[in-house]
């Protein structure tokens, strides 16, 4: 919520009160911000912005070009759409930790376990989805690594997952269903705080919900960075255009999970620590600023200011 808190403060400096539509109705607002529209919308304010965060894999309706043309500006992380006419660049944004606090939070190489994965158990039908690849990763690591080398966490892994969200909703409401579901032996339950878990591992399998979508870089890789954990990344094809390759292990560089496993399990301490150093240098450099919550605020506030000049 840091990004939206910052945005509210930034707009207040221009004399705008940012609130939800139950407080500030669209009809009585000079400008409306719409997030991830998933159904037909009637625009009622003089100026309307659309902010796209969910990918087309999760919210296909929101990626209709006809829908986009109804808005005055569309803010998106999608590098292929950005033209600075209708579409403007806006990344997923994050509150970056204080550097001294980040350094104190780092667990030593000797104390860390090898690898983890944190994700909910979900499925979706789409050619770019990576939910099924996470399942492949879990199954491979469970079958081929020592019990001390891999754990995974997240909601719903003690239940089956279907492509139909209505079936999933029904299944989750049947309390006795878990009795009939075989549990994953490396499943450690859900987590209250990702950082407190990730910091205990050298590597984390960090797959986006979708692949092959330029600029689709979510909180997942930054969760790893902020915990001092090296991500094994798969998702945006142009990730290295935004984040130095020295900060993560690129899943695409390997022929399969066996080769990946051999790479991480045999990595020398010095090589591993070079990744951690690169992560620290990146997150506290100017190159990371486009993913900072202040950039989120300044981008939107700047466009609103120019529209009202």
TrEMBL record:
Pfam families per UniProt: Glyco_transf_10 (PF00852)
Nuclease found in the keyword field: no
Gene3D superfamilies (alphabetical): Glycosyl transferase family 10, C-terminal domain
InterPro entries xref list: Glyco_tran_10_C, Glyco_trans_10, GT10-like_C_sf
Domain Fucosyltransferase C-terminal: 165-277
Domain of life the protein comes from: Bacteria
Membrane-spanning ranges: none
UniProt keyword annotation of Transferase present: yes
MF terms (GO), sorted A to Z: fucosyltransferase activity
UniProt record similarity statement: Belongs to the glycosyltransferase 10 family.
PANTHER family: ALPHA- 1,3 -FUCOSYLTRANSFERASE, ALPHA-(1,3)-FUCOSYLTRANSFERASE 10
Protein name per UniProt: Fucosyltransferase C-terminal domain-containing protein
Biological source species: Vibrio ouci
Lineage: Bacteria, Pseudomonadati, Pseudomonadota, Gammaproteobacteria, Vibrionales
